[in-house]
Fold:
Amino acid sequence: MTTRKIALIDIENFNGGPIATPGQAQWCRTMLEQWIKPAADEHIVVAADVTSVTNIDLVWPGIRILAGYGENGADLRLLKVMEENLPERFTGMTLVSKDRIFAEKVSDLAGQGLPTHVYSWPQALAKRLRFAATEVTTSMNYNFSPDYRKAA
Structure:
C-alpha cells in the first residue's frame, strides 16, 4: 500500500478572498508549505474561482488546480475529489478550509479509516468540521506583510 498523502486546499478560504495577483498566489504557497509541510510526493489539489487559476498556476506548477464557478464552486470541486476512492489510494488527507460544507465528507472518510487533518484559522473554523476531522490544527499566526496583496 502507498504511503502517499493528499492535500486539498480551498485557497481563497485560506487567503480570505480571490487570488488576484501572482504575488498573492506566491504568498499562499509559501505560507501553506510552511504550515502543512507537504511531503515531496504528496498529491496537492488546489481549488479556486476560475478567475484565480492563472495566478496560482504561475507560481505553483505541477499541482492539480481545479476551477470553481459561482458560489461554493471551489468547495464543490474539492468535494468531488473526496469521492475519488481516497482511502484506497492514500494514507492520509489534509484539508485546508474552514467550511462546514466539508464536515460530512470528512467524517465519512475518517470513518473509513483515512486519517483526516484539517488546517484552518481558529476564529472561522466550523464546529462540525472541527469534530469531523481526525486531527485539527489552527493558527493565529498569519505571518505576512500588510503589502502582500499589492505584490505583482
